[in-house]
């Protein structure tokens, strides 16, 4: 699949087959090299045969385009001479075999997300070419198009791979049930904390929008709208202890669609954060469940206001998992744990906003008289940036809703 480019500064893009048809570009055979005409790039080479790293892209040397080498050479020479350097913007889809039979992204491939990068330099290492890069932005891509020519896709010269200056779309993210049963998350010197039962059920929509006015980013947002059902029941054996830990217990990512040429990925990283305090020997099981309906949280950028978190708290319906306790008369203990399913959104390979509807379970035991109290709650956190839309837009980290209540109290 090839994409014909008609501007001086280089945009290498991997796009859908309909785009190639609209441009009238033929699909070169495998191994034909990386160019078939004037400023023409074989896009599948740039997406399927690349290893994407944090600060570089690595290609087989024999498929890296001669024309692209020349563009980067020109950029490097201009920088060294202190003259106006012409940026080289590289954009590609995820590789064609990135998705496994379950619909999830493979974890051990070179290009699972796609990429949007500014090329800074390159070097050959044996049979590989390493291109040093930094994150580029949609705003930069549109600026390149405005200043240096047009990309010939259909009849719309301002449409980059189907992405118009104004675009908005809602994606449905079908994420499988996350089962965390019987997972030991802390064990030391006879003390332990184990997830007896743990479950996360997600029903998620992602609202993504971008508005580019006069080839400057005017507004952009990513908002996650989710219904989440969480369950956390812990087994704890405590003695003389005072510690805090945070352990990742699940990670998975799923492709959920594309906005023009932007491949969108949704992911879930579940972790359990605990604060444990105890004196004398004590053991307990305790936990909570929660239905959290209609969480809406995310990040919005407006040119005249900057970046801010937005959110709607939704509804929280708590349920108790009754404790079972075994304490010495003089024992005191506190176990406070959060089950944190972080839903994150990636545009290309750039990590965007994330939303964490954390389930809180806290058990306090005190003597005398021997009393146990179980609390349950929710803390909805928003974090991340909209860097991919425009360079260095800003960062947020904010709790948009926090609630905790007593669920149970009893005498030992």
Topology (elements, then pairings):
Elements (H helix, E strand, L loop, with lengths): L1 E3 L6 E2 L4 H7 L16 E3 H6 L2 E2 L3 E5 L5 H16 L6 E5 L22 E11 L2 E8 L2 H11 L17 E14 L3 E6 L2 E23 L2 E23 L2 E19 L2 E18 L2 E21 L3 E7 L2 E13 L4 E16 L2 E17 L4 E15 L9 E17 L1
Parallel strand pairs: 2-6
Antiparallel strand pairs: 1-3, 4-5, 5-8, 6-7, 7-8, 9-11, 10-11, 11-12, 12-15, 13-14, 14-18, 15-16, 15-17, 18-19, 19-20, 20-21
Number of domains: 2
- Mean pLDDT over the full residue set: 78
Number of helices: 4
The residue fraction in helices comes out at under 10%
> Structural class of the helix and strand makeup?
mainly beta
Give the low-confidence spans. Answer: 1-42, 148-162
Question: Which range does the strand content fall in?
Answer: over 45%
Record field, number of beta strands = 21
Order of helices and strands: EEHEHEEHEEEHEEEEEEEEEEEEE
The assembly state of the depicted protein chains is single chain
Short description:
This protein has about 400 residues and is mainly β.
Walk me through what this model shows.
- With 412 residues, this protein is mainly beta.
- It has helices at 17-23, 43-48, 66-81, 138-148, and strands at 2-4, 11-12, 40-42, 51-52, 56-60, 88-92, 115-125, 128-135, 166-179, 183-188, 191-213, 216-238, 241-259, 262-279, 282-302, 306-312, 315-327, 332-347, 350-366, 371-385, 395-411.
- The strands form four sheets. Strands 9, 10, 11, 12, 15, 16 and 17 form a seven-stranded antiparallel beta sheet that branches.
- The longest helix is centred in the N-terminal third of the chain and has 16 residues, at 66-81.
- The N and C termini lie far apart (70 Å).
């Amino acid at each position: 699949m090839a994409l014909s480019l008609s501007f001086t500064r280089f945009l290498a893009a991997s796009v859908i087959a309909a785009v190639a048809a609209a441009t009238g570009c033929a699909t070169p055979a495998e191994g034909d090299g990386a160019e078939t005409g004037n400023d023409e790039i074989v896009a599948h080479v740039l997406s399927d045969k690349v290893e994407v790293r944090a600060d570089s892209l690595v290609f087989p040397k024999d498929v890296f385009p001669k024309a692209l080498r020349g563009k980067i050479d020109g950029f490097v020479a201009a920088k060294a001479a202190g003259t106006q350097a012409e940026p080289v913007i590289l954009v590609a889809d995820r590789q064609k075999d990135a998705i496994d039979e379950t619909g999830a992204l493979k974890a051990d491939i070179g290009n699972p997300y796609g990429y949007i990068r500014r090329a800074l330099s390159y070097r050959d290492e044996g049979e590989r070419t390493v291109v040093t890069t930094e994150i580029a932005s949609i705003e930069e891509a549109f600026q390149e198009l405005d200043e240096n020519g047009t990309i010939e896709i259909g009849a719309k010269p301002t449409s980059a791979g189907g992405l118009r200056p104004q675009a908005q779309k809602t994606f449905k993210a079908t994420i499988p049930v996350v089962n965390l049963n019987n997972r030991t998350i802390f064990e030391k010197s006879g003390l332990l904390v184990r997830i007896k039962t743990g479950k996360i059920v997600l029903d998620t929509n992602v609202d993504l929008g971008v508005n580019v006015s006069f080839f400057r980013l005017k507004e952009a947002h990513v908002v996650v709208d989710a219904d989440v059902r969480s369950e956390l029941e812990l087994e704890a054996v405590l003695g003389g202890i005072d510690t805090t830990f945070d352990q990742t217990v699940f990670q998975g990512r799923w492709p959920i669609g594309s906005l023009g040429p932007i491949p969108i990925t949704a992911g879930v990283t579940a972790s359990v954060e605990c604060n444990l305090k105890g004196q004398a020997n004590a053991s307990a099981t305790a936990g909570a469940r929660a239905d959290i309906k209609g969480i809406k949280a995310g990040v919005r950028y407006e040119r005249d206001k900057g970046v801010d978190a937005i959110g709607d708290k939704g509804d929280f319906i708590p349920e108790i998992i009754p404790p079972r306790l075994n304490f010495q008369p003089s024992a005191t203990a506190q176990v406070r744990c959060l089950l944190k399913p972080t839903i994150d959104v990636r545009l290309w390979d750039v990590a965007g906003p994330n939303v964490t509807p954390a389930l809180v379970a806290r058990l306090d035991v005190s003597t005398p008289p021997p009393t146990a109290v179980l609390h349950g709650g929710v803390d909805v956190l928003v974090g991340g940036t909209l860097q991919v839309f425009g360079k260095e837009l800003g960062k947020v980290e904010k709790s948009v809703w926090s609630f905790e209540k007593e669920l149970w109290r009893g005498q030992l």
